[in-house]
Amino acid sequence: MPVEDILLNFWILEDSPHGDITSEILPEKTAIARIISKDEGILAGMEIVKKICMKFGIDIRPLKNDGERIAKGDIIAEIKGDVRKILLVERLILNLLMYLSGIATTTRRFVDKVKTLNPKVRIAATRKTLPGLRWASKKAVEIGGGDTHRFSLSDCYLIKDNHIRVIGDTAEAVRLAKEKSSFTKLVEVEVRTPEDAVAAAKAGADIIMFDNMDPEDIRVSIDRIRELGLREKLVLEVSGGINLENVDRYAVLDVDVISTSFITLSPKPIDLTLKIHTLETTSREQV
């Protein structure tokens, strides 16, 4: 079963393990509801919401699609179906759209700011995501124009300080990873000093992540790597404590990727609401 189907089932079970007891007191009616924006930003999560509606036999007509800009007052989608089912999924679909649109919007703000300073730099997410929401969060980053980075620990080697402490040496850690890995897996090393960066580059790392380093120390590290003739063989990533206020200090450096947990842990949700627009009389009521 695809991971998205497993997650959809879990989200539905979490919010209505025994149904929606409040909506079950309602008469059987068909309703048309509208999802309306009370904010502005980049929409994300519509494809997921369409799958949720499909599971409940609810028809949905998106008026805005993932990646499109939305403004206050915009009707995002119209939904038609059993009013009780619409209200059962109301909070689930709104929560997903609000949170994921917040991620996409925040990502787009980073991308727009960085591209004016250094067009080659990618803005990437990190693995710091809420449990159960990583797949959806990463897709929202992609919709916002960012790079998803690793989806899981299985995607690539990322040698951190604790790995090096256990092994005892950066070069040995890289050697072990290269020896064990498939040719399809890259090896990334997290560094915190220019000396660490040089050691990782000499050891044959594919990616070097400058973690929580001052821009000047990063510049020194890159100069030393360039002197070794290794710059063009490496992907250089900056991470740690990066937000919209300081990202420009890193964007002007000769780096390829800026990764930040801000876009998945601290996005401002886009405010949306769902309103019943019309109610249709059922054939049973007409009798």
Give an account of the 3D structure.
This protein has 287 residues and is an alpha/beta fold. The protein has two domains: 3-104 and 268-286, Aldehyde Oxidoreductase, domain 3 (Alpha-Beta Complex), CATH 3.90.1170; 110-265, Aldolase class I (TIM Barrel). 42% of the residues lie in helices and 20% in strands. The chain contains eleven helices and twelve strands. α2 packs antiparallel against α3. It is elongated. The mean pLDDT is 94.
Keywords:
Aldehyde Oxidoreductase, domain 3, 42% helix, TIM Barrel, 287 residues, 2 domains, 20% strand, four-stranded antiparallel β-sheet, alpha/beta, 12 strands, six-stranded parallel β-sheet
Short description:
The protein has 287 residues and is of the alpha/beta class. It is built from eleven helices and twelve strands. The radius of gyration is 24 Å and the shape is elongated.
Largest sheet: 6 strands, parallel
Shape: elongated
Number of strands: 12
- Major sheet strand order: 6-11-10-9-8-7
Oligomer: single chain
Order of helices and strands, N to C? HEEHEEEHEHEHHEHEHEHEHEH
CATH homologous superfamily label of the largest domain:
Aldolase class I
Q: What is the percentage of strand-forming residues?
A: 15-25%
Number of individual domains = 2
**Which class best fits the helix and strand makeup?**
alpha/beta
Number of helices, where a helix is a run of at least 4 consecutive DSSP H or I residues: 11
Distance between the termini: 43 Å
Percent helix among the residues?
40-55%
> Given this structure, which CATH class of the largest domain is correct?
Alpha Beta
- The value of Rg in angstroms is 24 Å
Which second-level CATH architecture of the largest domain applies?
Answer: Alpha-Beta Barrel
What value does the average pLDDT take? 94
Low-confidence stretches: none
CATH level-3 fold name of the largest domain: TIM Barrel
